[in-house]
Amino acid sequence: MALELKQVTVRFDGTQLFEPVSLRVEPGMVTTVMGPSGCGKSTLLAAVVGDLAPVFSLSGDVVLGGQSLLNYPMEQRHIGLLYQDDLLFPHMNVGQNLGFALSAGMPRQERRARIADYLALAGLEGYADRDVASLSGGQRARVSLLRTLMAAPRAVLLDEPFSKLDTALRGQFRDWVFGTLKEGGIPALQVTHDVEDCGDGPVYLLQEGRLA
């Protein structure tokens, strides 16, 4: 299914932050919106996922799989988020962090098998009982993405998730993320200020309130 933004714009105290944005993200594709800090990139993602603060107002439409999302709260939009901070729970081990994305009613044996399968996909076999504090930055980033994917999102938003990784890991993790999304047929909308993080999908520039 595709993710579509139709004439989406956000206002703060009556002031329009950017001109209406219209774009379509095809299944398995990563579409990127680039722009400097403060141009409204993260606010655009918040509008898509339904997490705008009350001081903002939204116009236009956000459509996923042909269905408007505007009347659905954030938790019912089935959109995953991947930030530059991994946001793992420090009091939980790796398996418990991943299990947080699964249904509470799932049998324990099935839950452990599902977690093990996903860890294997990321090259982290046997890491379920590891303390998250013992993980490297790249490993934490992979666990964070796995947790996002295990929630079975219909689309994924990427808010500069590679910016805090060192150069050696950045390209490898970025390629793995894009490949995983492509294989799963999941549309992804990314915002970044770094051209190196763009994939082979469409790239737009948000600058001075205009998307080009």
UniProtKB/TrEMBL annotation:
Entry-linked InterPro entries: AAA+_ATPase, ABC_SmlMolc_Importer, ABC_transporter-like_ATP-bd, ABC_transporter-like_CS, P-loop_NTPase
One protein family per Pfam: ABC_tran
Cross-referenced PROSITE patterns: ABC_TRANSPORTER_1, ABC_TRANSPORTER_2
Any GO molecular function: ATP hydrolysis activity
Domain ABC transporter, chain residue ranges per copy: 3-211
Superkingdom of the organism of origin: Bacteria
Keyword terms: ATP-binding, Nucleotide-binding, Transport
Protein name as it appears in the record: ATP-binding cassette domain-containing protein
Species per Swiss-Prot/TrEMBL record: Natronospirillum operosum
